[in-house]
Amino acid sequence: MQLAWRDADVADMPTIGTRITTFDGLRQVPGGHGARLEWVRARAKAFRAEFTSTGTPASVTTCDLVTLPYPTRFGLFRASRAVAPFLAITNRMLVIRWQDGDGRRRVLLFEPSDVELGRSTPYFAALARRTPAALSSLLVTEHGTVLGHLARLGIAPEEVDYLMFDHLHTQDLRRWVGTTTPQPDLGGAVVEPLLPNAKVVVQRDELLAMTCLHPIQRPWYQPEAFRAVRTGAFLAVDGALLLGPGVAVLATPGHVHGNQTLALNTSTGVWASSENAIAAECLTPEHSRMPGIARWTRTWQQEVVLNANTIETTAEQYNSLVLEKTLVDRSQADPRFLQFFPSSELTAAWTNPGTKPTFSHHAIHHAA
């Protein structure tokens, strides 16, 4: 099923944030993906200096949502020699708060996945049908819900300004932003938004790609879930945008055409968060103790290990991950690893031998 976006469904962002032009012109760089890699690396260094001068948000809080299985061949693309066909990843939400120049307080939820509705993603639905219920209960652990975490943090649902995902794989946002028509699978009535003032920050490229999905994309999207979303729910971004002090969205295409990364300047330095990789060690794979990872990078002289399920544009994704690698600081806990926070982080599980991460962040801690 394809989408036909109405103009009213998508709002532009002329008055929100500040446009970042550092990365403009990437697609016009002559010489192919290799030349673009070096261009991206140089521009990321330049942007880092600009970004750190913008200040820091008031706080960044990490909220665990769910741990679930994911194919090893996707998460550790081509590099892993683990015998386990699946590894475990933990999806987490980041809650970022800051104050605009006019004094208005803002709240951004990064990766606020509706775990229950995400189960209908074609790939995971098919996997669930093949998995006995008793085994599924061992492989999937739900840690908390978006609304439960907000209540714990003392944030009222109407105080949430922005929702953002690195990309819209697996997402169903109807309960968050509401619908314009009755939804038979959600009680049969028009869905009133649980986050009534929240707008979804998304790259225009991804919205356009979702209007006509390619066969390799279809297992990972729920396009029908977007057909009746509330008018004006989306804020379309073209490229990079500074949302607030120390808070930016960067276009990082490759994993999907309209992939994006959250960049944060914090008390420990610069972080980047996306699903371009599932572990911090995938950005410095020479230090990984997981079977095959360090050997892979030595053999093929590849400096990053991708998370690649759809393989939309592998070389672009590689370049985007190098952008993130160049932008961030080293971890204070272990300087061999970088402050890249996977939105779905590799998690040790006894059921998945050979996929225990060498290093994990688990959370970003920041309060101004």
UniProtKB/TrEMBL annotation:
Statement: the UniProt record of this protein carries the keyword Zinc: yes
Cofactor entry: Zn(2+)
UniProt superkingdom: Bacteria
Keyword field: Hydrolase, Metal-binding, Zinc
Family statement: Belongs to the metallo-beta-lactamase superfamily.
PANTHER family found in the cross-reference section: METALLO-HYDROLASE RV2300C-RELATED, QUORUM-QUENCHING LACTONASE YTNP-RELATED-RELATED
Protein name: MBL fold metallo-hydrolase
